[in-house]
């Protein structure tokens, strides 16, 4: 049960940060593909850097172990990414 | 306290600050509940739940039994939280508005009709979820959560996403690129 409450709060933080970055708008998402507004890349890469250092520091301290890493399955990831990018540029979601 | 309040009531933050917040959220997700953030998996759980209620024989396949269990999972609660978080964000900057048509850039390209936005949003979202199912995640579940763990899958996904996104934007915008 506490797991679900944690999920709710994490979700609220996730949605809040997405909204404040402005990524809930069509214009912000599509403009990264036109190279006019790099907010999507800046947001994603900052989140990656912060969470990567945090996770590897915590693992180095021995406080956590990593959950299952998403499987690397080259053809599937590439084709899925191609289809996904098409949908993302069309709808802006 | 006042500075805090003015920051929260701003409409758009610098993407770096919002990215820091998301990074901390990702670390907390792994630390506190040993799971990864992700959105597209939750939709597939919900679809499996609806499908099993409607046509149980057709949905009794391995995918919906083991890989994406049908029902209210951790991811579905996370998704509900994401929606609430967006509402909280919009309320805090007083930009909350129930809206049925696209924004101005959309209207410049596709015209002002609302039904066009809904049709393209519907079929585009089908494409999005289909691609996420093939790849094993969406931007948050695979690119960010997988990239956090330095999984090669995440970076392949990001590369392919940008390649086809740039191509699609070129095709849609043509000379207004």
Notable traits:
heterodimer; A: 93 residues; 4 helices; 74% helix; globular; B: 177 residues; mainly alpha; 72% helix
Describe the structure.
- The complex is a heterodimer of chains A (93) and B (177).
- With 93 residues, chain A is mainly alpha-helical.
- Chain A has one domain (2-91).
- Chain A contains four helices and no strands.
- In chain A, helix 2 packs across helix 4.
- The model of chain A has no long low-confidence stretch (mean pLDDT 87).
- Chain B has 177 residues and is mainly α.
- Chain B contains nine helices and no strands.
- In chain B, helix 3 (40-54) crosses helix 5 (74-92).
- The N and C termini of chain B lie far apart (44 Å).
- At the A-B interface, helix 1, helix 2, helix 3 and helix 4 of A face helix 2, helix 5, helix 6, helix 7 and helix 8 of B.
Apparent shape of chain A: globular
The first-to-last residue Cα distance of chain A is 31 Å
Low-pLDDT sequence parts of chain B: none
Overall strand count of chain A: 0
**Strand proportion of chain A:** under 5%
Calculate Rg of chain B over CA atoms: 19 Å
| Largest beta-sheet characterization of chain A | none
Nearest-integer average pLDDT of chain A: 87
Structural domains of chain B: how many: 2
- Which structural class should the secondary elements of chain A be placed in? mainly alpha
By oligomeric state, this entry counts as heterodimer
Q: For the terminal residues of chain B, how far apart are their CA atoms?
A: 44 Å
Helix content of chain B: over 70%
Q: Indicate the mean pLDDT of chain B.
A: 82
Largest sheet of chain B: none
Indicate the proportion of strand residues of chain B.
Answer: under 5%
One letter per element, helices H and strands E, the order of chain B comes to: HHHHHHHHH
Q: Describe the global form of chain B.
A: globular
Helical/strand content category of chain B: mainly alpha
């Amino acid at each position: 049960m506490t797991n679900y409450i944690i999920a709710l709060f994490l979700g609220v933080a996730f949605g809040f940060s997405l909204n404040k970055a402005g990524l809930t708008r069509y214009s912000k998402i599509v403009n990264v593909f036109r190279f006019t507004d790099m907010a999507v890349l800046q947001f994603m890469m900052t989140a990656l850097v912060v969470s990567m250092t945090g996770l590897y520091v915590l693992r180095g301290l021995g406080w956590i172990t990593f959950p299952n890493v998403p499987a690397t399955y080259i053809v599937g990831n590439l084709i899925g990414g191609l289809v996904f990018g098409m949908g993302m540029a069309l709808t802006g979601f | 306290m006042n500075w805090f309040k003015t920051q929260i009531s701003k409409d758009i933050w610098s993407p770096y600050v919002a990215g820091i917040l998301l990074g901390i959220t990702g670390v907390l997700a792994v630390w506190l509940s040993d799971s990864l953030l992700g959105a597209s998996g939750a939709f597939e759980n919900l679809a499996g739940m609806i499908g099993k209620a409607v046509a149980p024989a057709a949905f009794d396949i391995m995918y919906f039994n083991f890989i994406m269990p049908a029902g209210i999972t951790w991811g579905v609660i996370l998704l509900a939280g994401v929606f609430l978080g967006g509402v909280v964000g919009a309320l805090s900057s007083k930009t909350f508005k129930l809206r049925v048509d696209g924004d101005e850039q959309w209207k410049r390209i596709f015209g002002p009709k609302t039904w066009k936005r809904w049709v393209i949003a519907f079929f585009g979202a089908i494409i999005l979820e289909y691609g996420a199912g093939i790849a094993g995640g969406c931007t948050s579940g695979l690119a960010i959560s997988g990239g956090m763990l330095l999984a090669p899958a995440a970076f392949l996904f990001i590369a392919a996403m940008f390649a086809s996104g740039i191509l699609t934007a070129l095709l849609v915008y043509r000379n207004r690129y």
